[in-house]
Amino acid sequence: MVPAVTISHIYKNYGRLEALCDVEFSIAQGCFFGLLGPNGAGKSTLINIMAGLARAGQGSINVMGYDVSKQWRQARQVLGIVPQELAYDPFFTVREMLRLQSGYFGNDRTNYPWIDELMERLSLNEKADVNLMRLSGGMKRRVLIAQALVHKPKIIVLDEPTAGVDVELRKVLWEFIRQLHKNGHTILLTTHYLEEAESLCDRIAILDKGRLIALDTTKALLGRYPYRLFHFTLNHTDKDLPDSIKEKVESFSGHELTLRLHRDKDRISHILDALHSANITFSDLKTDDPGLEDVFIALTGNNHV
Ligand SMILES: Nc1ncnc2c1ncn2[C@@H]1O[C@H](COP(=O)(O)OP(=O)(O)O)[C@@H](O)[C@H]1O
Ligand SMILES: [Mg+2]
Q: Which CATH number fits domain 5-222: 3.40.1740.10, 3.40.50.300, 3.30.160.20, 3.90.1150.10?
């Protein structure tokens, strides 16, 4: 089966800035794929190249086997892209805009029931005959999503669809995207919300400064961070920690001590012995498994997500 998306050796420079450098990965059909990376990593640049809004310096992107720069007509039929920036024509109503977009893809009136269904599912019905310029940011975001879906594309690309969106709409959007994935669409999502990437995506690519620094299943990536956090509630606040423990402290204040222990190198029994020898006792102990955020910070060395 041809991959839904094949990205081959993509380079893109803006003047001296290397926005993308030899980026290469593919996305299998039916996958829910997450593209993560700090601000300025190059995620939108990559998606804009896919959308035909920017040109790669070198390399190619294929969608369902069609080269996006050479077979754009076929490629755009299988692609639905929700851009990060809210761009729209203010003089149309929601319904007009969606019908117009549908027409661009060669669909006639027989596609109108699908447009109605999209408006229904994105709770746009009440605003169907309202001009786009009168809509709130969140409502415009919904229109952009509906617009990307009018031609029922196999591949749906969402560039930070939930950035700056309130919690309630975020939930609606995730539920909607989940449903699209269940119905067989391939999803490519970029997001700042790591917990959501963690719960939604099967596979993840991480970009940093234009380079691909990780590409794996979500599960394997989570397994790659070899630390666990141990939260102790101490019985006292006035004791010094032994040196062997000091170097493992993640945080320490009052009764609460958190240690960051290596899955293979640290033995919890040694830690407990060291605490015992220093007459440090505790009333509670909890552990925390790492999340994607920990992996992300370990890989990129920063937390400006
Ligand atoms: N049109 C442009 N002209 C010049 N520099 C750009 C342009 N678009 C993006 N960049 C730069 O390219 C880098 C990648 O940006 P972008 O792809 O938007 O990152 P992300 O979406 O991961 O936040 C950034 O340093 C950004 O400033
Ligand atoms: Mg971006």
A: 3.40.50.300
